[in-house]
Amino acid sequence: MATFVITKRLNGLYKYELTSRKGKTIFTSNSFELRFECEEEIVRLKANLENLVYMRFRSGNGKFFFRIIFEDRQVAISRKYSTQLMLQKGINEIEKYGSMAEILDFSTSDDIFADVFGEEEKAN
User: Fold this and answer.
1) DSSP secondary-structure letter at 30?
2) How many structural domains is the chain composed of?
3) CATH code at position 7
4) DSSP SS3 for 76
């Protein structure tokens, strides 16, 4: 099952990624000033997967990637794939699992492991 993961960029803006069942990033969104804007766009995308347009490209070093166009604007860019077949598998994963993907929000904490390892660090 794919998962939408909301995080904060180093510049303080928010983004979301769709990760595959195996934990690999399929695509990364544009930046958002507010976290709820990420959530709203994810909900819109999940409800309108059939309306997404995938523009395929090849980078200068021969890798393949796609841009996702929704409502006449680019909303995300994929990771780089080594083959066109792998690129198509990424798109297929969006179409198959995107509507069922859960949303995880890791944007509220800079260090998600602080609670787990923080106490041990202080004790040493």
Assistant:
1) -
2) 1
3) 2.30.29.80
4) strand
